[in-house]
Every structure is written in structure tokens, then in C-alpha cells.
Amino acid sequence: MASRNGVVFEDFFPAMVEKLGAEGFMKELCNGFRLLVDGDKGVITLESLKKNSAMLGVQDMSDEEAICMLREGDLDGDGALNEMEFCTLMLRLSPDLMNTSIKLLIEAILNF
């Protein structure tokens, strides 16, 4: 799957949710955040993303792609990703999880 910035990855998230459960999956996302975070600032910065991206198998990510990823996930406009922004971005990049969420929301509304 490709995001808007062209980075391609295989969507393993649905299988992870099935295996780990929702709580376990969220813990793993938080662990991913901790791998990329700038230890001094407590957020993922461009520098920390470039420095630590090899741990996630995206060591060939260009500066432009890294900037696009930060921009796409940066909800508060500070130029970095906090833990909530990172987890939100990761969920948005998984079409299967998004489709499942939409279906559950529609079902909940219809049954309300």
C-alpha cells in the first residue's frame, strides 16, 4: 500500500489486531513511537525519524518522504509527532482498519 507521499508498506495491522487484540496492538504502536522518538524532546522530529527509521525497515526514506510523513500526521502544527499523532497516523495508513472502524461506527449508529 502507498501513502500520499509514496512510501509503500504491507498492511500487517489487521493481522496484528487479530493476534494481539486492540489493547495489545495499541501497546505495539506505542512501542513503535518510542523507537522513533527524540529522547530529549519526547516527540518524533525529522531528525529522530531519519536517524531511527532503519529500525522500522524504511531506512531508504528520503528527506522529502520523511517531511511528508511528519506533515501528514502533525495535527497540532508543531512540526513533530507526539504519541497520539503517531498512533492516529499509523491507523489512518491502514485501509483495512479504517474500513473496519467505519463499518463498526455505522453499525453502532444504526443500532442506537
Q: What percent of residues adopt helix (DSSP H or I)?
A: 55-70%
Shape: elongated
What order do the SSEs take from the amino end to the carboxyl end, as H and E? HHHHH
Distance between the termini: 34 Å
User: Strand pairing plus helix content: what structural class?
Assistant: mainly alpha
Mean pLDDT: 82
Computed Rg: 15 Å
Largest sheet: none
Strand content: under 5%
Number of strands: 0
Q: Segments where pLDDT lies below 50 for 5+ residues?
A: none
Total number of helices: 5
Give a structural overview.
61% of the residues lie in helices and 0% in strands. It has five helices and no strands. The protein has helices spanning 13-36, 46-52, 63-73, 83-92, 95-110.
Which helices and strands appear, and what pairs or packs with what?
Elements: H1 13-36, H2 46-52, H3 63-73, H4 83-92, H5 95-110
Summarize the structure.
With 112 residues, this protein is an all-alpha fold.
Q: Which descriptors apply to this entry?
A:
mainly alpha, 61% helix, elongated
